[in-house]
Amino acid sequence: MFVLVVGGGKVGYYLSKELIENGYEVVLMEKDRSRADQIADEIGSIVIAHDGCEGKYLGEAGCARADIVAAVTGDDEDNLVICQMAKHHFDVRRTIARVNNPKNEDLFRHLGVDEIISPTRMILGSIEQDIPVHELLHLAALGEGELEIIEAHLQDGSPAVGRTAGDLSMPEGCSLFAIVRDGVATPLRPDITLRVGDKVIAIGPSDCEARLHEQLIGEDPEAVAQGR
Amino acid sequence: MSESHTPVFRRAVVALAGEPGDERIVRLVSELARPIHGELAAVHVVEVGWSLPLDADIAGRSEEVQRILDNAESVAEESKVRLESVLLQARDVGAALVDEATERQADLLVLGLPYRKRFGGDFAIGRTIPYVLKNAPCAVWVVREPIPEDQP
Question: Is the ipTM of this complex over 0.90?
Answer without folding.
Answer: no
